[in-house]
Amino acid sequence: MKQPASALLALALLTVGCAGAGVAAETTTTLPATTAPAVSTTTAAPITTTVPPPPSTTAPPSTTAPPPPEVLGLARAVMLVGLAGWGIDEGTAAHLAAGGSGIILLAPNIGSGAQVRSLTAEAACAAAGPVLVAVDQELGAVARLRGLVTPLPTAAEAREMTPLELEITGQLLGDEMLALGINVDFAPVLDVVTGPNPALEGRHLGDDPAAVAELGTAFWRGLEQAGVIAVPKHFPGHGRTAADPHFAAVRITATLDDLRAVDFPPFHTVFAAGARAVMIGHPVYEALDPDLPASLSPAVLRLLRDEFGFAGVAITDSLSMAGVADGRSAGRLAVQALVAGEDLLLVVDPNEVEPTVSAIVAALATGDLARSRLEEAASRVRALAAAAAPVRCGA
Fold this sequence. Notes:
Layout (H helix, E strand, L loop, with lengths): L22 H6 L40 H9 L1 E3 L8 H8 L4 E3 L8 H14 L5 E4 L19 H5 L3 H17 L4 E2 L23 H18 L2 E2 L20 E2 L3 H8 L1 H9 L3 E4 L3 E2 L12 H10 L5 E4 L5 H4 L4 H11 L4 E3 L5 H14 L4 H17 L8
Parallel strand pairs: 1-2, 1-10, 2-3, 3-4, 4-5, 6-8, 7-9
Helix pairs in contact: 2-13, 6-7, 7-9, 12-13
């Protein structure tokens, strides 16, 4: 299948939705070159004239037993991975066959409707079990499926609609997404925006917590009624951010009382309605954890489980964002997120998939990550995939 230019994914790794930063990201995203990892070499020992050299196919003895398949399967189950083109490459197919839970589609992965349907079918055929296929299709500026589904209202238009109208809108979108083989939507945005916010410009439902809760939950309900897993974001609410976490670290200085009054209510509402998954944002909330981004913070994940009573799947925002990466590898971030209590890791750079698997396995071996925590996360993700509308293998 014809692939988009390989220069298309680099910017997409920064604009995944929250995975996504706006309309410009839809048309200017670039792909990274799929460079094979470097292979280390060793110098052979001298060979005497009386002892023949070993055959060229003889491998050096291994001092470390490879991890068992079930451990590798657990590590792969907690990852939602990005793609390098318009189809499922061999590496992604092998990842899915070995236990990977799903993929996320960004602008460089989306062409025509037929191409998207072929891609999602390839994913379903490759996967060892039920597969999650996710996309960012929001009310507003971030719309990965533009031109392939009925246009959604802008965020400003959505603020003028009734809850019933938004519920019907969500149900229609969900039907059209499932026809393409997409069963997860990273929407709605439930951030209550009270001032200038470059990350959420054209993407939010306003500054009134009650209205955001009512309208956002209505759109969520429509998607769910169609059979799509709708993922509200970005817990615990980054409507107060003055910078964009795609490109820089962000701190929120609001008091806990302010967060409870303004930022938390939409999430309380959608969780009470039955949300099965939620995306955690990357800002640092000084009132909750002054040191760590929310997506890596045990305190924030305890808040989610204990105060909000949420028992579903906690999903990180993209681990490629500058606001969380701060020079750390995706593998290190993945381990830290799992230890904190996250369940599903958004690894949008396909070149980071295998290093992340290796980092998770290594953390198990050292005890930095408890196997029980990894098993808990994998169990939640697998249950979500099993409950999702199935993606068909083949036409």
